[in-house]
Write a structure and sequence with these properties.
With 160 residues, this protein is mostly beta strands. The chain is built from no helices and 11 strands. The radius of gyration is 16 Å and the shape is globular. It comes from Exidia glandulosa HHB12029.
């Protein structure tokens, strides 16, 4: 059976970020001592990403979830030298997947989570939580950041 992907950007209403109020000026979050950014999300403009921006956080307790109908989902993010870690859980399962967003240099459009073989007849909820142990300062004095770009939901070509 042929499949197709529906892509949702980081600002799509299908994606619920917690806390939902973004830091108004992402430049403030370059300063790791700025407590305004701790435990919050912000938007960063990064050319070459879907819609030219990503959601980012280095905050303890930050989460997002996306609920969808489909046979699978792929989450795309940005990896970089300041990359942290996060944990994905599908449909409240006990088993989770931890992803490392670290790379030696900037890497766009990286698959940070993928799951297929899901039941098409039920909605699915993917939950992400920033890995609190990532909050430490890295060797270059930066906080460890996770950045999300977009979400690809797979479904049969005849299902919209």
């Amino acid at each position: 059976m042929a499949t197709q992907d529906t892509q949702f950007g980081d600002s799509d209403s299908h994606v619920l970020f917690t806390p939902k109020d973004l830091v108004p000026n992402a430049d403030h979050c370059k300063n790791i001592s700025n407590h305004e950014c701790t435990g919050r999300w912000w938007q960063e403009g990064i050319p070459g990403t879907y819609a030219g921006s990503v959601k980012a956080t280095w905050g303890r307790g930050t989460t997002f979830e996306i609920t969808f109908y489909g046979s699978g989902i792929t989450v795309l993010g940005v990896k970089n030298s300041d990359g942290g870690k996060g944990t994905f859980t599908m449909d409240g399962e006990a088993q989770s997947t931890t992803t490392d967003f670290h790379a030696d240099s900037l890497k766009l459009n990286q698959t940070v989570y993928n799951r297929d073989g899901l039941d098409l007849s039920n909605p699915h909820t993917l939950h992400f939580r920033y890995f609190d142990a990532s909050f430490k300062k890295s060797s270059d004095g930066q906080r460890s950041v996770v950045r999300f770009d977009s979400f690809l939901v797979q479904h049969p070509a005849d299902v919209q």
